[in-house]
Design goal:
This protein has five helices and ten strands; from the N terminus they run E-H-E-E-H-E-E-E-H-E-E-E-H-H-E. The chain is α+β, with helices and mostly antiparallel strands and 260 residues long.
Length: 260
């Protein structure tokens, strides 16, 4: 039995999420169908992170255990020939038996894009959240680093009986400016050892309150300390969010020479 890791990109617009569900298209379902078409094996794929409907990825990782004799490079090419146009395998690599796409990960990176233009840009409607009116990006940039470090992020997630702990370590929490398709955007980058459900989107929705003058940076800190979801802002729309990378100990997997 071989263990194959896949580096993935997808447009989440037409998916109900990354994980298998009772109804609707999922990234996992597309991968499992393509694998069966290639190998005639029905296998279960494991993804590094669960993404909601509308959320994109350019650095998602999955692994699958199977008996195929195809080389990893052949797997990547053949899977792409079988997958729908909104999912692609950027690289494939055989890994050790202990590699697990979710449990072996040590860091996840997300980016949320916000369009501050006077009118929304149709070409960006699936990639960035359009926000009308004045937004104080300097205040947002000053507030975001307060979330770095190890904290209880209960205020920035949905309550779930299955959630054992809401403590996470955030390595990066920052705002920057960028240009995409000729449009000035702001990017909110968040990296952590792991994320809670809706955590990035609730952080973005709360920081936007800071940008609109409805919350101060100090109040954002108090929201974190109070651990009360009702004190935080709304959950930002899914389509502005992209999972940009998942990192592992280098002895488990490295993509440096494998990426297409």
């Amino acid at each position: 039995m071989r263990n194959i890791a896949l580096l993935l990109a997808y447009d989440g617009t037409d998916f109900v999420g990354s994980q298998l569900q009772s109804q609707g298209r999922t990234v996992q379902g597309a991968l499992e169908d393509a694998w069966e078409g290639l190998t005639q094996e029905r296998r279960r794929f494991t993804l590094a992170g669960r993404t909601d409907a509308g959320v994109h990825a350019q650095g998602q990782v999955a692994n699958v255990r199977g008996e195929t004799r195809h080389s990893a490079s052949t797997v990547a090419r053949a899977m792409n020939a079988l997958l729908p146009d909104d999912v692609r395998v950027l690289a494939a690599k055989e890994v050790g038996p202990d590699f697990h796409a979710r449990h072996s990960a040590v860091r996840r990176d997300y980016r949320y894009l916000i369009d501050l233009g006077p009118a929304s840009m149709p070409t960006l409607r699936h990639l960035a959240l359009h926000v009308e009116g004045r937004v104080d990006t300097a205040a947002m940039a000053e507030a975001l680093p307060q979330l770095e470090g190890t904290h209880d992020f209960a205020a920035f997630t949905v309550q779930s009986p299955d959630q054992k702990s809401t403590v996470r370590t955030v390595y990066v929490s920052r705002l920057s400016e960028m240009e995409l398709l000729g449009r000035r955007l702001i990017a909110i980058d968040l990296a952590a050892n792991a994320f809670l459900q809706h955590m990035v989107r609730v952080i973005v929705g709360t920081v936007l309150l800071v940008g609109r003058g409805r919350m101060t940076g100090a109040e954002l800190r108090r929201v974190l300390e109070r651990r009360d979801r009702k004190a935080a802002g709304p959950t930002a729309a899914a389509h502005g969010l992209t999972l940009t990378s998942v990192r592992y100990p280098p002895e488990l997997v490295r993509w440096d020479d494998e990426r297409a």
